[in-house]
Design brief:
By secondary structure, the protein is an alpha/beta fold. Helix content is 36%, strand content 23%. The protein starts with 7 loop residues before the first helix and ends with a helix.
Length: 322
Protein backbone atom coordinates (compact mmCIF):
# COMPACT_ATOMS: atom_id res chain seq x y z
CA UNK A 1 0.00 0.00 0.00
CA UNK A 2 1.24 3.48 -0.85
CA UNK A 3 2.49 5.66 1.99
CA UNK A 4 -0.02 8.35 1.08
CA UNK A 5 -3.20 6.65 -0.18
CA UNK A 6 -5.46 8.75 -2.35
CA UNK A 7 -8.82 7.05 -1.84
CA UNK A 8 -10.73 5.26 0.89
CA UNK A 9 -10.28 2.00 -1.03
CA UNK A 10 -6.48 2.42 -1.00
CA UNK A 11 -6.55 3.43 2.65
CA UNK A 12 -8.74 0.64 4.06
CA UNK A 13 -9.12 -1.98 1.35
CA UNK A 14 -12.32 -3.30 -0.19
CA UNK A 15 -12.66 -6.24 2.23
CA UNK A 16 -12.50 -4.03 5.33
CA UNK A 17 -14.95 -1.53 3.85
CA UNK A 18 -17.41 -4.35 3.26
CA UNK A 19 -16.89 -5.65 6.81
CA UNK A 20 -17.48 -2.31 8.55
CA UNK A 21 -20.68 -1.75 6.57
CA UNK A 22 -22.34 -3.87 9.25
CA UNK A 23 -21.01 -1.82 12.17
CA UNK A 24 -22.52 1.14 13.98
CA UNK A 25 -21.11 3.74 16.38
CA UNK A 26 -22.39 2.95 19.86
CA UNK A 27 -22.91 5.02 22.96
CA UNK A 28 -23.79 4.01 26.48
CA UNK A 29 -25.74 7.23 26.99
CA UNK A 30 -29.12 8.44 25.78
CA UNK A 31 -28.77 10.82 22.86
CA UNK A 32 -31.25 13.44 21.79
CA UNK A 33 -30.59 14.20 18.12
CA UNK A 34 -32.06 16.94 16.02
CA UNK A 35 -32.90 14.84 12.99
CA UNK A 36 -34.43 11.36 12.61
CA UNK A 37 -31.69 8.78 12.34
CA UNK A 38 -31.10 5.12 13.04
CA UNK A 39 -30.44 5.53 16.78
CA UNK A 40 -33.21 4.22 19.04
CA UNK A 41 -33.67 6.44 22.07
CA UNK A 42 -35.27 5.91 25.44
CA UNK A 43 -37.01 9.26 24.94
CA UNK A 44 -40.68 8.99 24.07
CA UNK A 45 -42.07 11.16 21.33
CA UNK A 46 -44.21 11.05 18.21
CA UNK A 47 -42.53 8.62 15.85
CA UNK A 48 -44.27 5.75 14.08
CA UNK A 49 -43.31 3.00 16.56
CA UNK A 50 -45.77 2.46 19.41
CA UNK A 51 -44.25 2.06 22.86
CA UNK A 52 -46.81 2.37 25.68
CA UNK A 53 -49.92 4.10 27.07
CA UNK A 54 -50.42 6.59 29.85
CA UNK A 55 -53.60 8.13 31.31
CA UNK A 56 -54.83 11.38 29.82
CA UNK A 57 -54.35 14.54 31.90
CA UNK A 58 -55.92 17.93 31.12
CA UNK A 59 -53.86 19.81 28.58
CA UNK A 60 -52.68 16.75 26.62
CA UNK A 61 -53.03 16.78 22.85
CA UNK A 62 -56.38 15.16 22.05
CA UNK A 63 -55.00 13.83 18.77
CA UNK A 64 -52.94 11.26 20.72
CA UNK A 65 -55.89 9.71 22.53
CA UNK A 66 -56.50 6.08 21.62
CA UNK A 67 -60.23 6.04 20.89
CA UNK A 68 -60.32 2.26 20.57
CA UNK A 69 -59.21 1.95 24.19
CA UNK A 70 -61.80 4.57 25.17
CA UNK A 71 -64.54 2.57 23.42
CA UNK A 72 -63.65 -0.49 25.50
CA UNK A 73 -62.95 1.14 28.86
CA UNK A 74 -64.55 4.59 28.67
CA UNK A 75 -61.27 5.98 29.95
CA UNK A 76 -58.88 8.28 28.10
CA UNK A 77 -55.37 7.00 27.39
CA UNK A 78 -52.63 8.57 25.29
CA UNK A 79 -50.46 6.54 22.96
CA UNK A 80 -46.70 6.94 23.53
CA UNK A 81 -44.13 6.28 20.82
CA UNK A 82 -40.45 5.42 20.72
CA UNK A 83 -38.41 8.07 18.95
CA UNK A 84 -35.55 7.33 16.59
CA UNK A 85 -32.64 9.70 17.11
CA UNK A 86 -29.33 10.34 15.42
CA UNK A 87 -25.91 10.46 17.03
CA UNK A 88 -23.31 13.21 16.83
CA UNK A 89 -19.86 11.74 16.07
CA UNK A 90 -16.85 14.07 16.41
CA UNK A 91 -13.51 12.65 15.22
CA UNK A 92 -10.35 14.62 15.99
CA UNK A 93 -6.91 13.77 14.56
CA UNK A 94 -3.68 15.18 15.97
CA UNK A 95 -1.47 16.02 12.98
CA UNK A 96 1.39 17.62 14.92
CA UNK A 97 4.98 16.94 13.94
CA UNK A 98 5.42 14.07 16.40
CA UNK A 99 2.51 12.23 14.77
CA UNK A 100 4.43 12.21 11.47
CA UNK A 101 7.10 9.94 12.93
CA UNK A 102 7.31 6.20 13.31
CA UNK A 103 7.37 3.18 11.03
CA UNK A 104 4.52 2.84 10.22
CA UNK A 105 3.86 6.55 10.61
CA UNK A 106 1.52 7.29 13.50
CA UNK A 107 -0.48 9.77 11.44
CA UNK A 108 -1.18 7.11 8.80
CA UNK A 109 -2.80 4.86 11.40
CA UNK A 110 -4.71 7.81 12.86
CA UNK A 111 -6.13 8.75 9.46
CA UNK A 112 -7.08 5.12 8.73
CA UNK A 113 -8.97 4.92 12.01
CA UNK A 114 -10.63 8.31 11.51
CA UNK A 115 -11.78 7.46 7.99
CA UNK A 116 -13.14 4.08 9.10
CA UNK A 117 -15.12 5.60 11.99
CA UNK A 118 -16.40 8.43 9.80
CA UNK A 119 -17.49 5.90 7.16
CA UNK A 120 -19.40 3.87 9.75
CA UNK A 121 -21.10 6.95 11.15
CA UNK A 122 -22.05 8.39 7.77
CA UNK A 123 -23.44 5.10 6.50
CA UNK A 124 -25.60 4.91 9.64
CA UNK A 125 -26.99 8.41 9.08
CA UNK A 126 -25.25 9.93 12.10
CA UNK A 127 -23.99 13.53 12.16
CA UNK A 128 -20.24 13.23 11.58
CA UNK A 129 -17.74 16.04 12.00
CA UNK A 130 -13.98 15.61 11.52
CA UNK A 131 -11.18 17.88 12.66
CA UNK A 132 -7.41 17.97 12.13
CA UNK A 133 -5.48 19.81 14.82
CA UNK A 134 -1.91 20.72 15.62
CA UNK A 135 -0.53 20.66 12.07
CA UNK A 136 2.17 22.95 10.72
CA UNK A 137 0.96 22.95 7.13
CA UNK A 138 1.20 25.82 4.69
CA UNK A 139 -2.55 26.31 4.43
CA UNK A 140 -3.27 25.64 8.10
CA UNK A 141 -5.62 28.42 9.15
CA UNK A 142 -5.90 28.55 12.91
CA UNK A 143 -5.50 25.72 15.43
CA UNK A 144 -8.30 23.57 14.05
CA UNK A 145 -9.32 22.56 10.55
CA UNK A 146 -12.71 20.91 10.58
CA UNK A 147 -15.61 19.82 8.45
CA UNK A 148 -19.16 20.91 9.07
CA UNK A 149 -21.36 18.11 10.45
CA UNK A 150 -22.39 15.85 7.58
CA UNK A 151 -24.72 12.90 7.10
CA UNK A 152 -25.21 10.09 4.60
CA UNK A 153 -23.15 8.11 2.14
CA UNK A 154 -22.82 11.05 -0.23
CA UNK A 155 -20.60 12.70 2.37
CA UNK A 156 -18.09 9.82 2.50
CA UNK A 157 -15.88 11.14 -0.31
CA UNK A 158 -15.58 14.77 0.85
CA UNK A 159 -14.93 13.71 4.45
CA UNK A 160 -12.38 11.11 3.32
CA UNK A 161 -10.67 13.66 1.05
CA UNK A 162 -10.48 16.11 3.95
CA UNK A 163 -8.72 13.55 6.15
CA UNK A 164 -6.45 12.27 3.38
CA UNK A 165 -5.31 15.84 2.77
CA UNK A 166 -3.62 15.72 6.18
CA UNK A 167 -1.55 12.79 4.93
CA UNK A 168 -0.67 14.53 1.68
CA UNK A 169 0.48 17.63 3.51
CA UNK A 170 2.45 15.59 6.04
CA UNK A 171 4.94 14.68 3.30
CA UNK A 172 5.85 18.32 2.75
CA UNK A 173 9.17 19.48 4.14
CA UNK A 174 7.81 22.22 6.39
CA UNK A 175 9.76 23.62 9.31
CA UNK A 176 7.99 23.08 12.64
CA UNK A 177 6.51 26.28 14.01
CA UNK A 178 4.96 27.07 17.37
CA UNK A 179 1.30 26.17 17.43
CA UNK A 180 -1.55 26.31 19.91
CA UNK A 181 -1.25 24.30 23.09
CA UNK A 182 -3.16 21.09 23.59
CA UNK A 183 -5.36 22.64 26.24
CA UNK A 184 -6.20 25.57 23.95
CA UNK A 185 -7.18 23.15 21.19
CA UNK A 186 -9.33 21.12 23.61
CA UNK A 187 -10.97 24.29 24.89
CA UNK A 188 -11.98 25.21 21.34
CA UNK A 189 -13.17 21.67 20.65
CA UNK A 190 -15.27 21.62 23.82
CA UNK A 191 -16.82 24.99 23.04
CA UNK A 192 -17.52 23.93 19.47
CA UNK A 193 -19.47 20.78 20.21
CA UNK A 194 -23.10 20.85 21.18
CA UNK A 195 -25.84 18.42 22.08
CA UNK A 196 -24.84 14.85 22.82
CA UNK A 197 -22.70 12.30 21.07
CA UNK A 198 -19.35 10.53 20.81
CA UNK A 199 -15.96 12.21 20.49
CA UNK A 200 -12.84 10.28 19.45
CA UNK A 201 -9.47 12.03 19.87
CA UNK A 202 -6.58 10.26 18.11
CA UNK A 203 -3.12 11.43 19.23
CA UNK A 204 0.17 10.32 20.75
CA UNK A 205 -0.48 12.78 23.64
CA UNK A 206 3.21 13.76 23.61
CA UNK A 207 2.57 17.41 24.41
CA UNK A 208 5.35 19.45 25.95
CA UNK A 209 2.86 21.34 28.10
CA UNK A 210 1.14 18.15 29.29
CA UNK A 211 -2.38 16.87 28.76
CA UNK A 212 -4.29 17.49 32.02
CA UNK A 213 -5.75 20.95 31.23
CA UNK A 214 -6.91 19.69 27.84
CA UNK A 215 -8.58 16.62 29.31
CA UNK A 216 -10.36 18.85 31.80
CA UNK A 217 -11.97 20.76 28.94
CA UNK A 218 -13.02 17.56 27.16
CA UNK A 219 -14.41 16.15 30.39
CA UNK A 220 -16.81 19.07 30.82
CA UNK A 221 -19.44 17.63 28.51
CA UNK A 222 -18.75 14.11 29.82
CA UNK A 223 -19.69 15.02 33.37
CA UNK A 224 -22.87 16.63 32.09
CA UNK A 225 -23.81 13.34 30.42
CA UNK A 226 -23.44 14.78 26.94
CA UNK A 227 -20.54 12.92 25.32
CA UNK A 228 -18.83 9.57 25.39
CA UNK A 229 -15.18 10.56 24.86
CA UNK A 230 -12.39 8.25 23.71
CA UNK A 231 -8.67 9.05 23.88
CA UNK A 232 -6.90 6.85 21.33
CA UNK A 233 -3.18 7.00 22.08
CA UNK A 234 -1.14 5.98 19.02
CA UNK A 235 2.55 5.24 19.52
CA UNK A 236 5.01 3.77 17.05
CA UNK A 237 6.67 0.37 17.69
CA UNK A 238 10.00 2.22 18.01
CA UNK A 239 8.59 4.44 20.77
CA UNK A 240 7.06 1.52 22.62
CA UNK A 241 10.28 -0.53 22.51
CA UNK A 242 13.39 1.18 21.11
CA UNK A 243 15.47 -1.89 21.97
CA UNK A 244 13.36 -4.30 19.95
CA UNK A 245 15.12 -6.74 17.63
CA UNK A 246 16.09 -5.09 14.35
CA UNK A 247 15.98 -1.59 15.77
CA UNK A 248 18.78 0.74 14.67
CA UNK A 249 18.45 2.85 17.82
CA UNK A 250 21.67 1.70 19.50
CA UNK A 251 25.00 3.30 20.30
CA UNK A 252 25.77 7.02 20.08
CA UNK A 253 22.81 8.96 18.73
CA UNK A 254 21.85 12.56 18.17
CA UNK A 255 18.12 12.90 18.86
CA UNK A 256 16.17 15.74 17.28
CA UNK A 257 12.94 17.16 18.66
CA UNK A 258 10.36 16.80 15.88
CA UNK A 259 8.55 19.90 17.11
CA UNK A 260 11.48 22.29 17.14
CA UNK A 261 13.08 21.70 20.54
CA UNK A 262 16.83 21.33 21.18
CA UNK A 263 18.76 18.27 20.05
CA UNK A 264 20.24 15.81 22.54
CA UNK A 265 23.36 13.65 22.33
CA UNK A 266 22.81 10.24 23.95
CA UNK A 267 24.50 6.87 24.14
CA UNK A 268 21.76 4.27 23.98
CA UNK A 269 22.60 1.40 26.32
CA UNK A 270 20.57 -1.45 27.79
CA UNK A 271 20.20 0.30 31.22
CA UNK A 272 19.09 3.50 29.49
CA UNK A 273 16.50 1.57 27.43
CA UNK A 274 15.15 -0.02 30.63
CA UNK A 275 14.91 3.41 32.22
CA UNK A 276 13.11 4.72 29.14
CA UNK A 277 10.62 1.83 29.27
CA UNK A 278 9.83 2.57 32.91
CA UNK A 279 9.27 6.25 32.12
CA UNK A 280 7.05 5.39 29.16
CA UNK A 281 5.01 2.92 31.21
CA UNK A 282 4.55 5.60 33.84
CA UNK A 283 3.48 8.13 31.22
CA UNK A 284 0.93 5.75 29.68
CA UNK A 285 -0.45 4.73 33.08
CA UNK A 286 -0.67 8.37 34.13
CA UNK A 287 -2.64 9.25 31.01
CA UNK A 288 -4.90 6.23 31.48
CA UNK A 289 -5.57 7.15 35.12
CA UNK A 290 -6.28 10.80 34.22
CA UNK A 291 -8.75 9.66 31.56
CA UNK A 292 -10.53 7.26 33.90
CA UNK A 293 -10.86 9.97 36.52
CA UNK A 294 -12.63 12.12 33.92
CA UNK A 295 -14.82 9.32 32.52
CA UNK A 296 -12.82 9.27 29.29
CA UNK A 297 -11.96 5.90 27.74
CA UNK A 298 -8.22 5.52 27.05
CA UNK A 299 -6.91 3.03 24.51
CA UNK A 300 -3.23 2.51 23.64
CA UNK A 301 -2.59 1.21 20.13
CA UNK A 302 0.71 0.77 18.24
CA UNK A 303 0.85 2.25 14.77
CA UNK A 304 1.56 -1.18 13.26
CA UNK A 305 -1.70 -2.61 14.64
CA UNK A 306 -3.78 -4.06 11.75
CA UNK A 307 -6.74 -1.73 11.44
CA UNK A 308 -9.25 -4.48 10.61
CA UNK A 309 -8.83 -6.58 13.77
CA UNK A 310 -8.64 -3.39 15.81
CA UNK A 311 -12.01 -2.19 14.51
CA UNK A 312 -13.81 -5.51 14.40
CA UNK A 313 -12.29 -6.91 17.58
CA UNK A 314 -10.96 -4.49 20.15
CA UNK A 315 -13.27 -1.55 19.47
CA UNK A 316 -16.24 -3.90 19.63
CA UNK A 317 -15.08 -5.15 23.02
CA UNK A 318 -14.52 -1.59 24.19
CA UNK A 319 -18.06 -0.69 23.14
CA UNK A 320 -17.30 2.07 20.62
CA UNK A 321 -18.69 0.07 17.70
CA UNK A 322 -21.06 -2.87 17.53
Amino acid sequence: MATNPGTIEELLGADLIEAIERLDIHSSKVFAGRLPGERRSKRRGQSVEFDDYRPYVPGDDLRHIDWNVYARSERFFLKLFREEEDLSVDIVVDASASMRLGDPMKLLFAIRLAVALAYIGLCRQNRVSCAVVGGSFEDFDGPIRRTAPRRGRRSVKPVCDFLLDALRQSSRDVEPRPGPSFHDICRRLALGRSGRGVMVLISDFLFREGYLPGLNYLAGNVSAGGFDTYAMQVLSPQEIDPGREGSQMVGDLRLLDAEGGPAAEVTLTAPLIRRYRRRLEGFIEGLSHACRAREIDHLLVPSDEPIGPFLLGRLRREGLVR
